[in-house]
Request: fold
Amino acid sequence: MNDDELRQAIRNSLEAGRLPRRRPPAKILASRSNGNVCDGCGRPIEPATIEYEVDVAARPLRLHVRCFDIWRDELS
Reply:
């Protein structure tokens, strides 16, 4: 996905309520993915790449690093 498509996917996730409209907390966990699906774009986070885990919902959100950055930008 290019950045425009990714940004639209994040906007869609915000509109659908899959991503919250509140700012992420200051503490973000980063770890290697186990192949989780990104809560921002809906695509798998490839194993052994970095994913962010954000505790802002009933369950932690897992995002690609780029999806996290775009989500944060969209909330500004």
Observations:
- The longest helix spans residues 3-16.
- The CA atoms of residues 32 and 50 lie 5 Å apart.
